Automatic annotation (TrEMBL):
Protein name: Solute carrier organic anion transporter family member
GO MF annotation: an example: sodium-independent organic anion transmembrane transporter activity
InterPro entries, alphabetized: Kazal_dom (IPR002350), MFS_trans_sf (IPR036259), OATP (IPR004156)
NCBIfam families: oat (TIGR00805)
Lineage, opening ranks: Eukaryota, Metazoa, Chordata, Craniata, Vertebrata
Domain of life, source organism: Eukaryota
Stretches assigned to the Kazal-like domain: 476-536
Species name: Ovis aries (Sheep)
Length: 702
């Protein structure tokens, strides 16, 4: 009696619960009858799909507005490529330690913290817009004069005006502010990469740990399907935002005389970062309410098939216990680094990691597959970053339309390619040899489709003072003598086009124009300049750059690019299978991690810088800002096309060569196995049959 009185309250409640129920089972607690939605793995899959979608949208948004950021802040393509690559710097620096921490930490809460950091980085990315002065597309006009009025005309007073404006605009404060703006953007991109570190690895492992073993592939498939729409949405958001003027929050009183087709147009690039940062912050909220561990899912999803109803049937006790048994419990996996990592300290983990890295890189198939994926990723990173700018320059289309084409054509077809590759591997049950063949065919067709791209374009139109006539001597005076009395400012940019001769002038002043007329036409107003001493007949010339003579080729060009992206994406799943089936069981987890790490270090980080540097070498006229080289105004279109497409061709050729070597090695290995199998050794034959019987269910499971 005394012992029972000393029993703790919770034990007494537990005993009271077991007395009134048959079989001694505890009566259900009313709170357990209504389990929290945050204890549902299905709700976690939904939240994580939305978060990864928003995170990829904010990560990819800069690529959709890269040319706009260059114009707004006077950056070269090399600098903007480095800015885009800094997203990967922060990510790569910390991704290795994710495999160390594993389940030691509160994964949902860490995912939420990473998402909040990414949202703050997105907001930080917009700070340069707010601390900078309003964008002035005509630097020669004073603040109290409406831009584009008479500042660019051929007037003698321009000499004093230009000298005063140049002296006032260039100061140590201006240069310091420019450096601060660039530093803020680089910091924001680094933090954006750091914030994305825990999101995907911890989310995937959390889903795999607490979902039913039969449901885990379905959940991960849904997750990846939703996630792949992120880059497409980033380009779509960029297309919408760049139609708006950059200073939409502080428009000048007299309005602006620009259209989105004007080469001086700068869209509201910062607004997309605010929208995507808000989406990431909203998607991060539920993660602070998920538990560190939740009960493992007990029900297997069964779908309607041949008229059967959808049912969520509970798994029998025996099946559940067998399904919950982890493969890591088997004795042959005790040496798996991924399994013993939680028992290591950080120092021990860092010491062991290089050993496993070298052991994995010694595997020829693994090394060649990683090299082929590095080539493919380099091609994809360069195209994702600079394809919008290439389309703008080569075909004279707006940044908004270029993003629309990529978001509606290239990204969806690339997603279709990944799905088709996975279906072919699954339905045809392709082994390593056939996976290598599929990769080789996909890379070969992609290379063939990229060949016509070299010829789909046209040469640059003539720009007075920049594009000299054939046979002209180098080192001539930059501008003709017809406008010597005009005192044109050297840093002004207000292009006009003589449509009769397709000659472009940097400003009306450089064309010798002395008057300006605005003609009202339906839906818009057209600006014309007259009395131009450098134009045959005195003009008129129209405001804006000359249109490209091959703008009609933009759709065929994009169709070929998109089909090539789809065929390259077909190789994604079979090449992934080559890694999973080519390394040891105990090294699979870290092999995949090493693969993604090498792709970031060797492809996603250097490729935008390489492409940007190649684009800069094709520039023929740089804008000057306070004595330093700023944004490029004019490119040699033929050189730009050959170098940009040539880099893509180079990486595709490297990938094709790697897949050819992989196929040769696989055929040699297959030939050796057949030779061993034909030897009259009954013991060896029985051993081979037994090993094949063990390997078959494993391959089907992978």
């Amino acid at each position: 009696m005394g012992e029972e009185l000393q029993m703790p309250d919770k034990d007494a409640k537990a005993m009271m619960g077991t007395e009134d129920t048959p079989g001694g089972k505890a009566s259900p607690n009313p709170q357990n009858l209504r389990p929290s939605v945050f204890h549902s793995i299905k709700f976690f899959v939904l939240c994580h799909s939305l978060l990864q979608l928003a995170q990829l949208m904010i990560s990819g948004y800069l690529k959709s507005s890269i040319s706009t950021v260059e114009k707004r802040f006077g950056l070269s393509s090399q600098t903007s490529g480095l800015l885009a690559a800094f997203n990967e710097v922060g990510n790569t620096a910390l991704i290795v330690f994710v495999s160390y921490f594993g389940s030691r930490v509160h994964r949902p809460r860490l995912i939420g913290c990473g998402a909040i950091l990414a949202a703050l980085a997105g907001i930080l990315m917009t700070v340069p817009h707010f601390i900078s002065e309003p964008y002035r597309y005509d630097h020669t006009s004073p603040a109290d004069m409406s831009q584009d009025f008479e500042a660019s005309l051929c007037l003698p007073s321009n000499k004093a005006l230009s000298s005063a404006s140049s002296n006032s605009s260039c100061s140590s404060y201006t240069e310091a502010r420019h450096l601060a703006v660039v530093g803020i953007m680089f910091t924001a991109q680094t933090l954006l990469g750091v914030g994305g570190v825990p999101i995907q690895p911890f989310g995937i492992s959390y889903i795999d740990d607490f979902s039913h073993n039969s449901n885990s592939p379905l959940y991960l498939g849904v997750l990846f399907a939703v996630t792949m729409m992120g880059p497409g949405m980033a380009y779509g958001l960029g297309s919408l935002m760049l139609r708006l003027y950059v200073d939409i929050d502080r428009m000048p009183e007299g309005g602006i005389n620009l259209t989105s087709k004007d080469p001086r147009w700068v869209g509201a690039w910062w607004l997309g970062f605010l929208i995507s940062a808000g989406a990431v912050a909203l998607a991060a909220i539920p993660y602070f309410f998920f538990p560190k561990e939740m009960p493992k899912e007990k029900q297997e999803l069964r779908f309607r098939r041949k008229g059967l109803e959808v049912s969520d049937l509970p798994v029998s006790k025996g099946e559940d216990s067998s399904s919950e048994q982890s493969p890591a419990d088997s004795p042959e996996k005790k040496d798996n680094l991924a399994q013993i990592a939680p028992d290591l300290t950080v120092i021990q983990f860092i010491k062991v990691f290089p050993r496993v890295l070298l052991r994995t890189l010694r595997h020829p198939i693994f090394l060649l597959v990683v090299l082929s994926q590095v080539c493919m990723s380099s091609m994809a990173a360069g195209m994702a970053t600079f394809l919008p700018k290439f389309l703008e320059r080569q075909f004279s289309i707006t940044a908004s339309y270029a993003n629309l084409l990529i978001g509606c054509l290239t990204i969806p077809l690339a997603i279709v390619g990944i799905v088709v590759g996975g279906i072919l591997v699954k339905r045809l049950r392709l082994g390593p040899l056939h996976c290598g063949t599929l990769c080789l065919l996909g890379a070969l067709c992609c290379l063939i489709l990229s060949t016509p791209l070299f010829f789909m374009g046209c040469s640059s139109h003539q720009v007075a003072g920049i594009s000299h006539q054939p046979g002209a001597q180098p080192g001539l005076e930059l501008f003709p003598g017809c406008m010597e009395s005009c005192s044109c400012p050297s840093d002004d940019f207000n292009p006009v086009c003589d449509s009769s001769t397709r000659v472009e002038y940097i400003t009306p002043c450089h064309a010798g124009c002395t008057s300006r007329v605005v003609q009202e036409v339906p839906d818009k107003s057209q600006v014309l300049y007259n009395n131009c001493s450098c134009v045959a007949g005195g003009g008129p010339v129209s405001a804006g750059s000359c249109d490209s003579a091959c703008s009609h080729l933009v759709l065929p060009f994009m169709i070929l690019v998109s089909l090539g992206a789809a065929l390259a994406s077909v190789t994604h799943t079979p090449s992934f299978m080559l890694i999973l089936r080519g390394v040891k069981k105990e090294d699979k987890t870290l092999a995949v991690g090493i693969q993604f790490m090498l792709m970031r270090v060797l492809a996603w980080m250097p490729s935008p810088v390489i492409h940007g540097s190649a684009i800069d070498t094709t520039c023929v006229y740089w804008a000057q800002s306070c004595g330093r080289r700023a944004v490029c105004r004019y490119y040699d279109h033929d050189l730009l096309r050959n170098r940009f497409i040539g880099l893509q061709f180079f990486f595709k050729t490297g990938s094709l060569a790697c897949f050819a070597l992989i196929l040769a090695i696989l055929r040699q290995q297959d030939k050796e196995e057949r030779t061993k199998a034909t030897k009259p050794n009954p013991g060896l034959q029985q051993q081979l049959l037994a090993s094949e019987a063990k390997k078959e269910p494993e391959e089907s499971r992978v």
